[in-house]
Amino acid sequence: MNKLIINSYDDFEKMIGQKLGESDYVELSQDRINLFADATLDHQWIHVDTEKAKVESPFHSTIAHGYLTLSMLPYLWDQIIEVNNLKMMINYGIDKMKYGQAVLSGQSIRLVASLQSLQNLRGVAKAEIKFSIEIKDQPKKAVEGIAIFLYYFN
Question: How confident is the model over 96-121, as pLDDT tens digits?
Answer without folding.
Answer: 999 999 999 999 999 999 999 999 99
